[in-house]
Amino acid sequence: MTTVLYPEALYSDDALERDVFGPGVRVLMRDVGVIAELNEADCAAAEGLMIMRQWVTAQDLARFPRLRAVVRMGVGYDRIDRAAAAARGILVCNVPDYGTAEVADHALALMLGLRRGLFLHHDAQRAASPASWKVIETPLVRRIETLGLGIVGLGRIGTAVALRARAFGFRVTFYDPYRPDGTERALGIARARTLEELLPGADVLSLHAPLTPETRGMLGLDELRLLPEGAVVINTARGPLMDLAALEVLLREGRIAGAGLDVLPEEPPGDPLPDLLRAYRAREAWLAGRLVVTPHSAFHSPEAWEDIRRKSAETMAAALLTDQPRNVIPPESW
């Protein structure tokens, strides 16, 4: 009998999984903090491994003699040592389509909330000494149709953001060297051929690129300085794409007016906290209404959570029970 192992206690039962897999698959639900805590018997039996928040190293994979597939229950797959998996002939798959609408909506909510001063006025009106009942003059607030939106990474989520942003009146330009020519014409948006070409026109910059050796740290101090005065930066992709210290410098200078972050370089953030996050949590006055942080929650809705569960099981079933696996990440892909 084929065995699929869930090392995290994500659900209260396995009824949906059994329905998807059928009677020929044994589902093991465990609750460990890291893969290394799994017992030997479970590792020896597992042919399929489901991963949500945990990391899978080469050392971890060595404990699974029968493993044939690892499914990342999400979009990103940087938590899995794919070179080690490829050396063993283990398929690595992801679930790329579970929360596209939610993340796109979240990114739009952050940029609109910042650009319309919602967070700024909210903070001011609930302060110990509430602000006067009048508008606050700030470089954050602009008429949306006068603004350029720069999108880095035009995959499913980046495309969904572009379509939503057009409806609000943003002038949308994207940078993604891997999208074919003509993509911009199909969507009715503009294209920048380099990051340096994109940034000077991005009154709002929204990141939607995967984390790869190429994209890690792609936005440092030099790059962020290319943004227009008073820009807003949104990151709902991966924290290590952007230098958080550089963002803090430019927020303090006023060069960047505001930022919305759903991801951080280290999650959950540990000690020592990045200076920007420490100032945010201390509610330092200079950041009031200018920085919004959410805990990697952009993907979430009850519907998306259900999608993750079902689509992950369907992906694993395709990998183990058919000769047509889906959502396979090629070993050479970053």
Automatic annotation (TrEMBL):
MF GO annotations: DNA-binding transcription factor binding; NAD binding; oxidoreductase activity, acting on the CH-OH group of donors, NAD or NADP as acceptor; transcription coregulator binding; transcription corepressor activity
Record-annotated D-isomer specific 2-hydroxyacid dehydrogenase catalytic domain positions: 40-329
GO biological process, one term: regulation of transcription by RNA polymerase II
UniProt key word Transferase: no
One Pfam family per UniProt: 2-Hacid_dh
Keyword Oxidoreductase set for record: yes
Domain D-isomer specific 2-hydroxyacid dehydrogenase NAD-binding, chain residue ranges per copy: 108-298
SUPFAM superfamilies, per database record: Formate/glycerate dehydrogenase catalytic domain-like, NAD(P)-binding Rossmann-fold domains
Xref: InterPro entries: CtBP (IPR043322), CTBP_dehydrogenase (IPR051638), D-isomer_2_OHA_DH_cat_dom (IPR006139), D-isomer_DH_CS (IPR029753), D-isomer_DH_CS1 (IPR029752), D-isomer_DH_NAD-bd (IPR006140), NAD(P)-bd_dom_sf (IPR036291)
Keywords of this entry: Oxidoreductase
Protein family: Belongs to the D-isomer specific 2-hydroxyacid dehydrogenase family.
Protein's name according to its UniProt entry: C-terminal binding protein
The organism of origin for this protein: Rhodovastum atsumiense
